[in-house]
Write a structure and sequence with these properties.
The complex is a heterodimer of chains A (about 270) and B (about 200). Chain A is built from 10 helices and 5 strands. Chain A has about 270 residues and is of the alpha+beta class. Among the domains of chain A are: about 55 residues, no CATH class; about 130 residues, Alpha-Beta Plaits (2-Layer Sandwich). Chain B has 2 domains: about 110 residues, Rna Polymerase Sigma Factor, Chain: A (Orthogonal Bundle); about 80 residues, Winged helix-like DNA-binding domain superfamily/Winged helix DNA-binding domain (Arc Repressor Mutant, subunit A, Orthogonal Bundle). Classes of the chains: A alpha+beta (about 270), B mainly alpha (about 200).
Amino acid sequence: MDDFGLSDHELDEMLDGGSVPSGLADIANFLRDAPDAIAHQPSAMIEDRHLAAMTQAMRRAPEQPVPVRSARRKWAGRVSSVFGVATGKVAVTVGIALAVGGTLAATGQLPSPAQRVVSSTMQHVGIHLPQRAGSRRVLADARLKGRSPSEGLSRAANEFVRSKGRNASNRRTSGANAGHRTLGTPVWRAIACRCATYDEASATMDELTADRSFSNWSWEIDKIEAPGGSSYYEVENEFAGTSAKADSMQLASRLREAGFSDAVNEEVPP
Amino acid sequence: MISAASQDPAGARRDEDELSRLIEDAKRGREWAWVAIYRILAPPVLGYLRALGSQEPEDLLGEVFLHVVRGLPAFDGSFADFRSWVFIVGHHRVIDERRRRTRRPILGAAIDTLDVPSDEDLAEDVLESMSTLRIRRIIDGLPMPQREVLLLRILSGLKINEIANLLGKSVGATKALQRRGLASIKRQIEREGVPL
């Protein structure tokens, strides 16, 4: 504080390029020139390489499948727009959808993300529904506390995943809460995709997590269907607790080292 | 050519609008828009990655832009928001790289850190103004936490609370780092006795 005799607000203003308090012209000049001084132009070769990779990724983008987990956002958007237009026709449609959806939700047949949303919403009003498609079968396997992830997955569950196609998923837990569906609110996640088969995804996860260094962690494998009829398997890891961020970053690094160039590490939106 | 900032507020707003339209064009898959975005943001992001001590900043820069290309369909916001997002992705990549480095120390790193300039580097350095070199030297002399906060503040457009969130620190601690960093810079400028 004594270095400047300025309030936080005044410092902020200076950093934002606003008024410069007297006697601080030098540091204001520094702040003005710093962006240009720090910037570093990539070489033409690097630029060409990056732009080529971006173009390739962009061209692939229209064919990119929509991951199953985005279904939750799509549903949320539809529901809010439905409430924005209060017409009788919409109300009837919603009624039918709710009736069908309710039946599916009660039997755990909705797409997994939708099942999660419906289940958690209904819990608020005291109605308990399965958390996700096939959750009972998967959880039975998940209760095999202390085993490595794939040991917890039965042949039947594997078959279930294959037969359910795009909505199939398994989530298993590890650490102190192994066997429980809820880890606490997941706050970070590491995602990698493009395994050709479920077994490949599962084996990769086993290998990367063999040291059992993660706690309060759960993971699932989702089958993602592309519009052209192709499909792949995506691994989604969620972490809760105080070490969530560090654990998620570490796993994302491991995934990248294992060749998942598209592994991402991100904060779970609240 | 679209500049990242203008001197007058009206010009700055016009630029901001044009830059935001670039994002819309990039979303529509127009390659020229991506080229423009890359040319605007790659230099500051690469500078940021280097200043944070990345061992392979060019590779990380490529990863950052690939991530951004893949994530753009879900992005919604102004160019300023976009710029902040790109820096956040870059910051995460540097952290990941540091972790990788910790687990697998690079043999011969001690030699690398000597940073003996090549003839090409020397020629480049001569072309750069003394002011630029001095600014880089002062920034490189800051402790890493102060450097992270100030660089994000100066380059990314993130607000102090957003930086605090990104770094996993409290707003108060982040403000203190910012203040201490600026104080160090001020002292360094005064010590050298040559105005910038």
